[in-house]
User: Fold this.
Amino acid sequence: MTKKRAMSFARAAAVAAALVSVQLQDAVAAVSYLTTSPRIAIANLDAQIEGLQRRAASESDCPKNASVEIELIERLTFRARIRSRFADSREALQRSRVLVRCLPNDQRASLSHAAVLVHFHRFDEALAIADRLVEDGTAPQRVRNLRAQALHGLGRFGEGLALRREEVARHATPRSLGGLAVLLGDMGRVDEAEELFARAIGEYRDVSPIPLAWLEHSRGRMWMRLDQADRAAAAFQRSRDLLPDLLASSGLLAEIRFEQGNAGYAIGELRRLATLSDDPDYAAHLSRMLLAEGRVEEGERWRTVAADGFVALMLEAPEMYADHAAEFWLAAGADPRRAMHAAAVNLAARRTPGAIELFGNALRADEGAPEVCGGALASATALAACRDALEPSLAKASPRAAFE
Assistant:
């Protein structure tokens, strides 16, 4: 072999190695998952919930079987996340409240209720319960994941990271690896997060497609926050392929496709999702896209649907929906004062970089915001005063859509 030829071969080998390296980072795209049918997986989940609801039925005010009730609450919360069903979230919260009222000294009931509070983004309350359970002697391994989730949600990333690493060191499972990956991604440590996502997915050995789809969804959200649209879209597509019922992946993929110029696909997909789900975020993005495309009549109809939905949810579950409500009022909702209120609620629930940025955007958009709101980022007292100052003006602004 000539020297020139050898050099050419070496360069080709180097290019091939580089391509292999890139492909390995997205290796999951080529994996043929040996999982059960997503339709069967969701049908099984629905059947489990229906069976548990029948077993949990009681003529008394209190559940007759705490174990059945706890399992039902977990399944309802699980399905709520997959199908973007607030009705399931509401039922889970109602049942968990009854459970802790009837069994105030039962640690399992307290832990179940705290998990639902995390789902509702009421992180302070959940963390208080977890801390009390640790003091009461509950096995730390049962509380560690809950505390890590609450600390993560609150934006106390360093404390959450210590717990997540501890959990992985004790028992490295796809779930614990995925939890650590999500946290590292939110902290901006993307290379570490991507490595853990790949490891969690590669080590998955169960047959249910649901955990895999959720890992890919979480991976896509990380890339989307970093404006890596192609990587995010690929992850959301894999999530959809694994579990078409995971509506959040379909919605975020539609947002990306709209920004990439495929308005027809995005609008059609969001119209479908807005019909399937009681989460107004799909209607919010649909209205934004329709109005941007000049389809004013339909855009206004969906804007009303989104507005009414967010108003209702800001009454019932404000911490859970405040971020999306603020984003809606800043965009298609076109109401900076409502955006300001929702962003303040969100910031009070969690002091994450995203919540801080959202509040700053709302503050800039609302030129007439109360003066006290200007100091809300620096002071919890000012934030509370800001919320108090905003609520009366909201009630006066539109009785139909007031947050009182």
